Amino acid sequence: MTTPLDRTAVGGTAPDVRMVHLGLGAFHRSHQAWYTAKAGDGWGIAAYTGRRPDAAHLLAAQDGVYTLVERGAASDRCEPIGSIVRAVPGDDVEDFAATVADPAVAVLTMTITEAGHRLTPQGEPDFDDPETAADLRMLRDATGLPRTALGRVLYGLDRRRRDGAPPIAVVPCDNLPGNGETVRRALTGLAEAALPALAAALPDLASFVSTSVDRITPRTAKADLDLVRRATGRSDRTPVVAEPFSDWVLSGEFPSGRPAWERAGARFSADIAPWEARKLWLLNGAHSLLAASGTLRGHATVAEAVADPVCRNQVEALWDEAVRHLPDLGLQEYRGALLERFANPRIEHRLAQIAEDADTKLRMRIAPVARLEREAGRSAAACATALAAWSRATGGWLDDLAPDLAADPVFRTAYADAAETLTRPTTQESHR
Ligand SMILES: NC(=O)c1ccc[n+]([C@@H]2O[C@H](COP(=O)([O-])OP(=O)(O)OC[C@H]3O[C@@H](n4cnc5c(N)ncnc54)[C@H](O)[C@@H]3O)[C@@H](O)[C@H]2O)c1
Ligand SMILES: O=P(O)(O)OC[C@@H](O)[C@@H](O)[C@H](O)[C@H](O)CO
Fold it and tell me: Which residues are in the Mannitol dehydrogenase C-terminal domain (predicted)?
């Protein structure tokens, strides 16, 4: 017999809400909520969805409690997680703002996806984006509620300013370089356009923490619901599956306190840039390369693609280019560990998921390495392969993604050569 999952699975008492999260997806639950539960020092989270309410409804029906399935190469480990105390649809913007303004709340984390930031390719607020422009008008004229993620954050922070609550730490957890500083600049620019009093107050009202986040978390499959029921004897309508590995590097101030995330292995560093570049260029860069090239070669998951020698060689070549621009942070070991993580046959990480919003991702994961390679006088052939595969898989144009690289004759030649190679069968294939 199975019993429904609820708070009794985690001891019965909910911790007080001291953290708020925007973008209640799989990754928040496998990562920040997991670190917060492991810290064990009584921080509860009120989590809001970004776009669709479904995740909030499912989770709220279970008192916010869900099962984390840690999926190793050989077996699964199921654990109930109880740090999310309230799960709320994101379109309840008034509720979100009231939580952000709550003086007991000290931390605001976010996973709104890279594209959800609605930034220009240069990483600045995009005032030409119609939804951003509509939010700015509403905020300025106080005529409605914002719909974009950053618009909602501005609305919440402005409520906090007006209520005179103590400063809050804003902790972006998307795969964006310098995510804390990027979000600080974006919010400041947007506030200057619509809420000048907030723009002036922001430096005292909020700190911005940059983070490098890592835990491969694919979308949950239907079969995982049965698996959890069999393994735990409880029916969970919304478990989350992740690899056993997890990493979190943070840099910045927490003026009103934070959970003791270091108890769960989080690291605090004054200089996050090298860690972040290592993760974005090696892990995420390879993911985006595989999402394009692996799809072209008929693969559906990361594990399938990385087992293909053609894709694997492309990944190694990309890494050879990237590591020339990274300090020695145990790069050989890191590469070896990544190959093992990618090869985990039980993690069904679909290339189609990684390929979503591919152009935004490639701008951050591949283009920076290509530029550094070109500055060093090399052709950046492996980056060119990644971009050519993306173009072939999606119909995207290099000129739109990275006009500077498109205008560089050496890179352009490498890109054209790569495009041609992608259509040519390998020696093995031509002998079949
Ligand atoms: N899944 C991973 O392995 C992983 C690992 C590291 C970092 N991340 C970061 O977390 C983000 C979310 O990943 P996930 O696995 O939770 O995805 P998910 O699809 O499970 O959840 C995405 C969340 O973002 C919200 N969202 C999506 N588009 C949005 C938009 N345009 N504006 C506002 N909110 C929006 C969704 O409503 C949802 O709440 C990724 O984009 C990435 O930046 C994910
Ligand atoms: O989550 P996204 O969409 O930014 O990117 C897809 C993957 O590259 C990413 O989720 C990785 O699995 C993750 O960053 C590992 O920590």
Answer: 271-396
pLDDT digits (tens, 9 = 90+) for 107-166: 999 999 999 999 999 999 999 999 999 999 999 999 999 999 999 999 999 999 999 999
Spatial separation of the C-alpha atoms in residues 247 and 330, rounded to whole Å: 15
Residue nearest to atom 6 of ligand 2 (CA): 354
Give the distance, in angstroms, between the CA of residue 50 and the centroid of all CA atoms in the same chain.
13
Atom of ligand 2 nearest to the CA of 349: 12
Whose Cα sits closest to atom 22 in ligand 1?
25
d(CA 328, ligand 1 centre) in Å: 30
Q: What is the pTM of this model?
A: 0.96
| 222 and 160 within one domain | yes
Atom 13 (ligand 2): residue with closest C-alpha? 216
Kindly report the protein residue whose alpha carbon is nearest to atom 4 of ligand 2: 175
Q: Is 284 in the pocket of ligand 2 (CB under 6 A)?
A: yes
Mean of pLDDT values over 95-111: 98
Same domain, 308 and 349: yes
For ligand 2, whether the C-beta of 211 sits within 6 Å is no
Residues 306-364 have pLDDT tens digits of 999 999 999 999 999 999 999 999 999 999 999 999 999 999 999 999 999 999 999 99
Tell whether 310 and 264 lie within a shared domain: no
Domain that holds residue 314: 274-430
Q: CB-based contacts of 429: which residues, under 8 Å, 6+ apart? A: none
Encode 394-424: b = buried (16+ Cβ within 10 Å), e = exposed: eebebeebbeebeebebbeebbeebbebbee
Find out whether the beta carbon of 146 lies less than 6 Å from any atom of ligand 1. Answer: no
ipTM of predicted complex: 0.97
197/93 same-domain check: yes
Provide φ and ψ at 321, rounded to 5°: -70, -45
Ligand that lies nearest to the alpha carbon of residue 302, given by its number in the listed order:
2
> From ligand 2's centre to the CA of 220, what distance in Å?
15
In this structure, the number of other CB atoms found within 10 A of the CB of residue 270 comes to 6
113 C-alpha to ligand 1 centroid (Å): 4
Provide the domain count of the chain: 2
pLDDT tens digits, 35-72: 999 999 999 999 999 989 999 999 999 999 999 999 99
Same domain? For 284 and 238 the reply is: no
Residue 360 CB–ligand 2 contact under 6 Å: no
